[in-house]
Design a protein that fits this description.
Chain lengths: ~475, ~300
C-alpha cells in the first residue's frame, strides 16, 4: 500500500500550470540538437535559390505547376506525392523503432522553434532562477522593457516563419516586391498572419504542452517503441539507491548508487520530465539530460553514462538483438525502398506529353453507309513542357484502318489538357471479332529538336457476328 | 458543510462528507479556460455575423424563423454569386458565338470545344430522349453518329432539321402491290443494302421503277433526287436504299416489307411507321419555341461532330 501511495505522490500530470524554465548545459547532444535544428535554415533560405532563371523550388498553386529544380510536376503526377508521404511516414516509423522519438527531439518544428524561443528568453532574462524571479516580480520599467523586447523578437521570428513559408508558394522575389506595399493577395496576408501568431503562440506560450496534449505523433510514436529501441534511459541498477555526495565519504565503501540526486537531469529537460522514472509520454528523447548527467558524473569522478542512449533490454541485462535481426527493420526498409524507387521511377519517366484515350460508349460503334464500322475516341493530350506544342496523332491496329479528325497536328498549350475527337474506321470485312486492340501514338517535337511521343492502348469495337 | 475546516491548508472547497471525504479545488489549467471562453466568444460573434438561432417562430411566414446575421450572408446568395461567376466565363464565348455561323464555330478549335461542352447539356435535355445520350439512336429514331442523313448532314441542313422539325411520308403499298411484288421489292432492298447497291435483282429494279419508288428514292435508289451545282443534294427525306443502314430497326427483309406495305406517317394506315421529328425552333412555334437560334446553332455543331457530319 505504501508503494502505491509513493507512486501516487510521484504522479504528476503536466497541464502547463507552471512554465518550465529549463536550464541550458553544453554537451555532445546539445551540439547535435543545434546541428539538426540548423536543417531548418533550408526552410528560410531555400526560396532564394535560383535554377535556370527561376526559383529552384516553387509550388505554383494558381498555375498548378510545381517546380523542383529542373523538373516541373503537374497535378497529373501527384501519385508521386502519396509515395513521398508514405516514404516520410515510414521513415518516421523506422527511426522511432530504432532510436525512439528522434524526430521529436531533434527536427520537429515545435521543439526546434521552442528551443530557439527559450534561447532568446535566456539571452534577455537570464538563467532559469532569474527568469522565475522576473516572472514573479511586479511590473516595472526594466521588466516591461525586457518582456516587450522578448515578445517582439518572438513575433518577428513568427513573421519570418510565415513569410518564408509563403515564399515557397508565391515566389520569394514577387513576395518581397508585393508584400510590403499591399500588393499580394488576401491568402498571402492571411497565411503570414496565421503563421506569425501560430508560431508565437505555439513556440512562445504552449511549448511542451503541444507535445503533451496536441500532437498526435507524440502518441503514435509511443506505440512504435519496443524493448530493443535505443532511447535516453536512466541506468536504474547503477544509479539506485540514489544519495547525495557526503563530505569525506570514501568511494570504495559507498553504499549508495551512482546517482547523486542532483536533479540536473530534470532541470535541463525542456518538457519537465524526470527521466529516472523511466521512458514516458513527455520524453521527446532530445538527450539533454545525458549531457547534464555526464557533466555531473565528471565532476564527482564517477563514470559517464548513468543516463545514456540504451534499450530496455540492455538495461535489464538481456541479450541485445542486432539491428539486422529485427523483422521490423526489414519490413520498414522494404517499404521505404519501394516508395523511394516509385518516386525515382516517376521523376525519371516524366514525359513532356501525356496521352489519354477515352472510348465513346454511346454508341460503342456505328455502322456507316458503306458498311464499315466507326468508333469515336476522345483524346486528352497533356502538354507538360514549357512551350506550346503541335502534336501529331497516329493509330495502329492489326488490320488496316482509317483515322479521321487528326489530319492536322493538334495545338496543345503548355500546362494544359487539350481534348480532341477522332474517329477510326475499319472495313467490315477486315473486322474479325468484336474487339481489336488499337494503339494511339501522339508525337511532337520539342523546341530543342528532340522527338517525344506518348502511347496509349485502347480498343476498337464492332458488332458481334 | 462543516463549520470549520478540519483539513486546513489543503486547498479544499470546504465540502465534506463522512468526516474525511472532501472536494479538492483542482481548477483546469488556465490556457484551457482561455480556450473555453474564446470558443464561447467565437460562438456569440458567429451568431451575430451569420444566420444561426432558430427563433422567432411568429415571423416564420416571411422567411423568418431564424436570426439573419448582420453580414447578410445566405447560402442561396453564395450559390447565386457562383452562378454569376460561371455566367461571366460563359459570356466571353457566348458573345462570340452569337455573331458567328455554325461553320465559323467549327473552324475555331477553342470555340468548338466550348460549344461541344455546353451543347452536350442541351442535347441531353432536348435530343437524347429519342436519339440516345450519344446520338446512338433508338428503335424508330435515327442514329446521329453515322454518316447517313435523310435530309442532309451539313451544318445548315442539321440546323434546318432542328429548327423546323421533319416529317417524312411514304405511301402504304399494301393495296398497290401484290404479296409477291412486295416480297420481291423487300428482297431487292436487302440485296441492295448488302452489296452497296451493286447486287439488286433485275426484277426488283423493274418493280422499283414501275411502281414509282424512284419518284422519292431517286433514279439511283440512293435517296437523292438531284444534285445542285454547289454540290448540295435535293431530297424529300426518302432513305438511301444502296447503303447498309436501316432507318427502321431491326432491319432486313421483315423491316423492309413492313415499311413497303404500311408506309411512313400514313394517318389512315394502322400499322404505319411513325417518324416525326418535332420542330424546336421559333419559326414553327409548335413546341412554343423551346430553343433559341444560338442554341440550335450549338446543337448543330454538336450533332455534326457526333461522327457523321458532312
Amino acid at each position: 500500500m505504501d508503494e502505491l501511495y509513493a507512486e501516487a505522490h510521484h504522479w504528476e500530470v503536466n497541464t502547463g500550470g507552471e512554465t518550465i524554465h529549463a536550464k541550458r548545459m553544453p554537451g555532445k547532444w546539445r551540439r547535435i540538437k543545434w546541428l539538426a535544428a540548423s536543417v531548418w535554415l533550408i526552410f528560410f533560405l531555400g526560396p532564394y535559390v535560383q535554377w535556370n532563371g527561376r526559383q529552384a523550388v516553387l509550388f505554383d498553386i494558381p498555375n498548378r505547376q510545381y517546380h523542383l529544380f529542373g523538373v516541373t510536376v503537374l497535378p497529373q503526377d501527384f501519385w508521386m506525392l502519396s509515395l513521398l508521404l508514405l516514404f516520410f511516414a515510414i521513415l518516421l516509423a523506422v527511426a522511432t523503432a530504432l532510436a525512439g522519438r528522434v524526430y521529436c527531439g531533434y527536427f520537429c518544428f515545435q521543439t526546434v522553434w521552442t528551443d530557439v524561443f527559450t534561447w532568446i528568453e535566456e539571452r534577455l532574462e537570464g538563467s532559469p532562477p532569474q527568469r522565475r524571479k522576473l516572472d514573479k516580480a511586479p511590473v516595472d520599467a526594466r521588466k516591461l522593457r525586457i518582456k516587450v523586447l522578448k515578445h517582439a523578437i518572438w513575433l518577428v521570428i513568427g513573421f519570418l516563419t510565415g513569410f518564408s513559408f509563403v515564399a515557397w508558394f508565391y515566389g520569394a522575389g514577387p513576395l518581397w516586391r508585393d508584400f510590403f506595399v499591399g500588393g499580394a493577395n488576401a491568402a498571402v496576408y492571411a497565411s503570414v498572419a496565421l503563421f506569425t501568431f501560430g508560431t508565437y503562440l505555439l513556440a512562445g506560450w504552449l511549448r511542451e504542452q503541444v507535445c503533451f496534449w496536441l500532437c498526435p505523433y507524440a502518441r503514435i510514436q509511443g506505440v512504435m517503441l519496443d524493448k530493443s529501441t535505443v532511447v535516453p534511459a536512466y541506468d536504474v541498477t547503477r544509479g539506485e539507491p540514489r544519495g547525495r555526495v557526503k563530505k569525506g565519504e570514501i568511494e570504495e565503501t559507498r553504499t549508495t548508487g551512482d546517482c547523486v540526486d542532483c536533479n540536473q537531469c530534470v532541470a535541463v529537460c525542456p518538457t519537465g520530465v524526470d527521466i529516472r522514472n523511466g521512458q514516458q509520454e513527455g520524453c521527446i528523447t532530445c538527450g539533454l539530460c545525458i549531457d547534464a548527467c555526464n557533466a555531473v558524473m565528471d565532476k564527482v569522478g564517477r563514470p559517464r553514462g548513468l543516463i545514456r542512449y540504451a534499450s530496455l533490454d540492455e538495461l535489464e541485462g538481456e541479450s541485445v538483438k542486432p539491428m539486422l535481426l529485427r523483422p521490423r527493420v526489414w519490413v520498414y526498409t522494404a517499404i521505404l525502398a519501394l516508395a523511394l524507387s516509385g518516386i525515382i521511377y516517376g521523376l525519371s519517366t516524366l514525359a513532356a506529353i501525356e496521352l489519354k484515350v477515352l472510348h465513346e460508349r454511346a454508341p460503342l460503334y456505328v455502322q456507316l453507309s458503306d458498311g464499315s464500322i466507326q468508333n469515336k475516341y476522345t483524346l486528352k493530350i497533356l502538354n507538360k513542357s514549357e512551350t506550346d506544342l503541335k502534336v501529331g496523332i497516329s493509330a495502329e491496329a492489326p488490320v488496316p484502318l482509317t483515322l479521321m479528325g487528326a489530319e492536322e497536328p493538334i495545338a496543345v498549350k503548355h500546362g494544359e489538357v487539350t481534348p480532341a475527337i477522332v474517329f477510326i474506321k475499319i472495313g467490315r470485312s477486315d473486322l474479325d471479332g468484336e474487339r481489336l486492340p488499337v494503339t494511339f501514338v501522339a508525337t511532337t517535337q520539342l523546341p530543342d529538336g528532340t522527338q517525344v511521343s506518348a502511347e496509349r492502348e485502347n480498343a476498337f469495337f464492332g458488332p458481334s457476328r | 458543510m462543516a463549520e470549520h475546516n478540519p483539513f486546513p491548508g489543503e486547498n479544499n472547497t470546504g465540502h465534506f462528507w463522512d468526516d474525511n471525504i472532501r472536494e479538492l479545488n483542482n481548477p483546469p489549467p488556465q490556457w484551457w479556460m482561455i480556450a473555453l471562453w474564446a470558443s464561447l466568444a467565437w460562438f456569440i460573434l458567429y451568431g451575430i455575423l451569420y444566420p444561426m438561432f432558430p427563433v422567432l417562430p411568429w415571423q416564420s411566414q416571411e422567411g423568418g424563423g431564424f436570426t439573419k446575421g448582420i453580414l447578410g450572408w445566405s447560402s442561396i446568395k453564395e450559390y447565386e454569386q457562383g452562378v454569376e461567376q460561371v455566367e461571366e466565363v460563359r459570356a466571353q464565348y457566348e458573345d462570340q458565338i452569337a455573331g458567328m455561323s455554325a461553320e465559323e464555330i467549327l473552324d475555331d478549335p477553342g470555340l468548338t470545344q466550348y460549344t461541344l461542352a455546353s451543347a452536350k447539356v442541351l442535347f441531353g435535355d432536348y435530343c437524347s430522349a429519342c436519339h440516345g445520350s450519344g446520338g446512338q439512336g433508338n428503335p424508330g429514331y435515327p442514329v446521329l453518329a453515322d454518316d447517313n442523313w435523310l435530309y442532309g448532314g451539313s451544318l445548315a441542313k442539321i440546323q434546318e432539321s432542328i429548327t423546323n422539325g421533319r416529317k417524312g411520308a411514304m405511301t402504304a403499298h399494301k393495296d398497290i402491290l401484290t404479296e409477291a411484288e412486295a416480297d420481291t421489292l423487300a428482297n431487292w432492298v436487302v440485296e441492295m443494302g448488302e452489296t452497296q447497291g451493286e447486287g439488286g435483282s433485275e426484277a426488283g429494279w423493274k418493280l422499283y421503277n414501275e411502281k414509282g419508288c424512284n419518284a422519292c428514292h431517286g433514279a439511283e435508289a440512293n435517296g437523292v433526287l438531284a444534285e445542285l451545282p454547289d454540290g448540295s443534294i435535293v431530297t424529300v427525306g426518302a432513305a438511301n436504299l444502296r447503303d447498309s443502314i436501316w432507318r427502321f430497326r431491326p432491319g432486313g427483309y421483315e423491316s423492309a416489307k413492313h415499311t413497303i406495305l404500311y408506309g411512313v406517317n400514313q394517318p389512315a394506315v394502322e400499322q404505319t411507321r411513325d417518324a416525326v421529328m418535332p420542330a424546336f425552333g421559333d419559326a414553327a412555334g409548335s413546341l412554343d419555341g423551346k430553343l433559341e437560334p444560338d442554341q440550335i446553332k450549338k446543337l448543330a455543331v454538336y450533332v455534326h461532330s457526333l461522327g457523321g457530319g458532312q
